[in-house]
Input
Amino acid sequence: MAYIVTHRGEEHNIRVEECQPGLYKLQLGDREFLVDYDEPRNNLLSLIIDGKSYEVDIETSDNGELYGVDIRGDHFLMEVVEEKKKKLAKKLSAGLTGRQEVKSPMSGNVCKIMVKEGDRVECGQVLLILEAMKMMNEIKAPLAGIVVSLKANEGVPVASNDLLCVVEPPSAE
Output
């Protein structure tokens, strides 16, 4: 799996390949690491990288892409996004202009609404979480702008193609 990790404004490409359960090959740029991975409890990782042991505490944000990482007393804040997802979001946002209706891509249940009418959002920001077939799906803003209308309600089912919200670019204010 390929990821783009952003830390202090710099993007890094990382590839992760599972060699066997609990053992991963990680490629960061032109460097390659063999990582022995265990998660003894939720949000606590035990890693052995090149023979050195690390205990890593991880805090995740509501959108699942921002992580606070503590390693040996140092704290790092980073965004981790699947490479395909990030490239697709950039392509989609490049061509979008004007008022955008965000519709449900599938039938499901609205689990959590992350924005309210009048909120400013960034392209790719999670607007709400939709549960469908026991999977949590992030519904994201198609462009940077303002949420001008919010039709979805938490705990209420939606059908495929139902209007969830409307986002207008800032110039349309």
Observations:
- The mean pLDDT is 88.
- The chain has one helix and 16 strands.
